[in-house]
Amino acid sequence: MSQESINILSTSVHNVNAALQKQDFDIVIEQTTRGLNQLHQIHFHLLSARIIAYEQKNELDQAYSDSTIMTNEFPNSALGYIHTTNILMKRRKSEQAFTTCNNALEQELVAPSDPNYEDLMQLYRSVIDRRKQKEKIDFMKILPKEIVSIIVEYLRMGERLICLNVSQRWRQTILDCPNALCSWILGPFSAQRDLRVGYENVQLISEYLRELHIFLLESDQEAFKAVVNMLDNVKFDHLRTFSLYASSIDRVRLWKVLDNSKYTLEELYFTFASTRISFVDIISRCKNIKNLTFDTTRPLGYSNNPPLPLSLTHLKIHAEQIGKMELQAVLETGKNLQELTIGYCHAGLLMTFTRWGSKSLYHIVLNPNRFDPADTIPEYQRALKEQEVKKVNSMTKKYITSGKMIGVHDCDDVTAQLLLPLLKKYEHTTEAISVAVSQEGDEGPHYWREFTGYGTPLIKFLKLGITDKTEPIFASVIRNCPALEVIEFCESRLTDITFDALQSISSREEETGGLRCFVIRGDEDGPKTRVSDKGLRSFFEFYASLGKKSTLEEVRLEFISGIQAFTLRTLSQIKSLKHINLAGTLEENEEVMNIAIRSFSNSSSLPLLEYVSFDQIPITDEGIEQIDCKHIKLHGLDDITTAGVEAMINNSNVLKYLEVAGCQDVEYEPVLNLTKISGIKLSFTV
């Protein structure tokens, strides 16, 4: 109701009175007509406002009476039908609500030009959805208990919460399956949907809930409100695992969760929640915690009070520039720590580890990337989006995330003088080392000369970032690690020196088990790292010559240069290979690359091949059409088309999982239809 309408009505009344005195009846008719039109609009807006007020006060009878008047007096306005339908839905009269909307639209009482027409259409669709849901529930009510028990096993937690309201039989059947209620993931796409059933149902299952994982996007305010209200209304006092990936939930609510489950909580993951809760808040409450991941943008603020719980064995901290005294306090009071990861710290802390680290420590990592939920919670991807195709991880991952490792790869200014004492302290437990040389030019050998000849028979994994000047030093390290199974080079210009060292340990494999995984990774965003083609080819030829005795299962060549297509063809002769990953690796022309890639399609040459990944390499349809293995990933291939992918699918015999991403000339619908027919699970992104 605008002020303009009121002003027009007031003016009309004034003009009518003046015209009547002058007996100017034409003006009287004109002004009264104009005033009555405005009165009609004012009546409409006043009715609507009163309906809203009645609804807010939950006086639905009065609201319904006014909405009926509105639809009778203004039958061509969508707003009256919207009010009436909403009121009927609140009164649980879904059939009448459907009839109200349906009549207005079927009889074309409301024109599409009405400003509220789209709102009416949206409401109509919502009513239809609820009607269908009711029909499903009516059907579900008559199902026997045996069928209900089977169905419950395949439902998501949110669906189980909804089904608690179907009938007493459903409720009891779900509560009789506590294993189905032990873990719940609330992601940005599921929180609002799963919590719309009300918090009574959540409270009902809370005594069975052992794992609660919450992932929130700051932009999703509705999901955020739903989760906050849940934490206010539900008491979780049996949690063993609690994960929170969000930054806006206040510390009082988090204290409540920790206090209620302080005797049962064993695993806690707080990432980007740092502005709301402190490290001391956590360890002072969770006396039985075993595994803690804490990511903060502030200083850690820890001295040694309270001491770390004796139960704590796995600790990951990412805080603002952790200092020597803070780390010393953690090491002094963390008597039983086995894994300790420290983010954002300097190389000098290696001396603190050497002096104060306990004998139980076997996994020490400095300055990793910020913690990825996928590293701590296997179901993270499912929390964000249902994925049919599982991610294939490299063998390197198990060492980097939880192996017996000392990792300083991402820590600047590390030197042999700082690192060697720590390695020697833990030489009887360390199986993996991750290190990169940050010193350039002639400085490298000066700071790393003491590392020459280091190595132990226990080392199974090396991740190295080396320079031209330090390559001989680290080649000697490789020679002294005869049990090496996995090696990864990052942004390292490898020459024959390194490949000769690798072959020297390969020749002793009958005694030690043998190299299983070989990775060279360059800089994806910078100039490609050049490696020796001759040395790499000789290395591959050695494993090809071993035939069935070869141990090499995984090869990843990513963003490097200097490699010829013929060297790639040598890969197809290594019968033990299971995983091949080529990313941005070659600069050959497409025709030559197609020939090299087609060599992977010979199943007799690669009988064990399970996974191939091609990422940003120059191949066409001709190169991929005959590729066949269990899992294929095609990423950023600008020269393949829909026809090529279809041919690959049609020619395959063993393909089960297909990933297509960033291939601009590959269309989604044809590939989706064909994979459905072929029983292949598809992950497709533009």
TrEMBL record:
> Which InterPro entries is this protein grouped with?
F-box-like_dom_sf, LRR_dom_sf, TPR-like_helical_dom_sf
Q: Which intervals of the chain form a coiled coil?
A: none
Its GO biological process terms?
SCF-dependent proteasomal ubiquitin-dependent protein catabolic process
A GO cellular component term found in this entry reads: SCF ubiquitin ligase complex
Q: What is this protein called?
A: F-box domain-containing protein
Organism listed in the record: Circinella minor
Organism lineage: Eukaryota, Fungi, Fungi incertae sedis, Mucoromycota, Mucoromycotina
